[in-house]
């Protein structure tokens, strides 16, 4: 579906920077019951809410979206901007900056690691094998982190031949998470599921064992650092947009008739040069 127009015919061009953000929310339409889902990304004026049956929500309908921020329930008036197979895009219609304020507060919450986060492709967080199954230990590889929370993670690593076939459900792996410009984080867990992804990559879901306090704190700090960078991106983009479209930087709107009058006055006051 195009980003320019949605199923309701409303323009849905994104005017604000969006960042990946996993957060629980509930949408209650004006003419219907509330449905709960998980936020996938947010901007300062909207969000995308993943739902099981998004087709049950009317395109262009209005309602309120509810968030829990610092143990307080916040609700905001919104409108369904577009509907897709996996969720709905909601445009916040509040006149004040209450939503952006609540959003920035939520991004700073210390317990955000419980909900976890998806790692943007541009946010390079590596994964290295420390110890585990023999079929994996035969080769030295560095994978990529896709999701992480306080109790689990999803990572991918390159596979060739039958190397990926040895990752059995229930196997114990000891890994090191490699955050950029930070010390590696040792983790240990049990393989819950694995699938062969694109480009001969194996994606593996790992449930953490009881981690040392240092690793738990390091994961929390990793989530906070990534969210802080996302927050800075949003603020910088917003500031740049405001500066670009500020009135002082734009040429003053001039009506065509005013231009004609000025030209007539200018040329009317000039005298023809005398010729001899």
Care to describe what's here?
The chain is α+β, with helices and mostly antiparallel strands and 276 residues long. Among the domains are: 19-109, predicted glycosyltransferase like domains (Thrombin, subunit H), CATH 2.40.10.220; 120-213, predicted glycosyltransferase like domains (Thrombin, subunit H, Beta Barrel), CATH 2.40.10. It has five helices and 13 strands. It has a six-stranded antiparallel β-barrel with strand order 1-2-3-6-5-4. Strand 12 (185-196) and strand 13 (201-208) form a beta hairpin. The chain is globular and about 90 Å long. The termini are far apart. Mean pLDDT is 78; it is low at 1-13.
């Amino acid at each position: 579906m195009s980003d320019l127009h949605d199923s309701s015919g409303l323009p849905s061009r994104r005017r604000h920077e969006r960042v990946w953000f996993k957060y629980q929310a509930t949408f209650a339409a004006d003419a219907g019951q509330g449905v709960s889902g998980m936020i996938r990304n947010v901007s300062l004026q909207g969000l995308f809410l993943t739902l099981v049956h998004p087709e049950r929500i009317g395109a262009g309908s209005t309602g309120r979206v509810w968030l829990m921020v610092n143990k307080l329930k916040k609700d905001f008036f919104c409108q369904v901007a577009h509907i897709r197979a996996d969720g709905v895009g909601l445009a916040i219609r509040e006149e004040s900056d209450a939503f952006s304020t609540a959003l920035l507060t939520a991004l700073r919450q210390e317990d955000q690691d419980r909900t976890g986060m998806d790692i943007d492709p541009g946010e390079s967080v590596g994964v290295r094998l420390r110890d585990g199954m023999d079929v994996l230990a035969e080769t030295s590889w560095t994978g990529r982190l896709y999701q992480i929370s306080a109790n689990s993670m999803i990572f991918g690593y390159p596979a060739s031949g039958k190397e990926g076939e040895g990752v059995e459900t229930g196997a114990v792996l000891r890994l090191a998470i490699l955050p950029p410009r930070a010390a590696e984080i040792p983790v240990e867990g049990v393989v819950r599921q694995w699938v062969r992804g694109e480009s001969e990559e194996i994606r593996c879901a790992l449930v953490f064992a009881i981690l040392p306090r240092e690793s738990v704190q390091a994961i929390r700090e990793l989530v906070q650092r990534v969210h802080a960078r996302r927050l800075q991106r949003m603020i910088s983009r917003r500031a740049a947009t405001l500066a670009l479209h500020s009135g002082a930087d734009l040429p003053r709107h001039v009506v065509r008739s005013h231009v004609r009058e000025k030209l007539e006055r200018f040329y009317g006051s000039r005298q023809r040069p005398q010729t001899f």
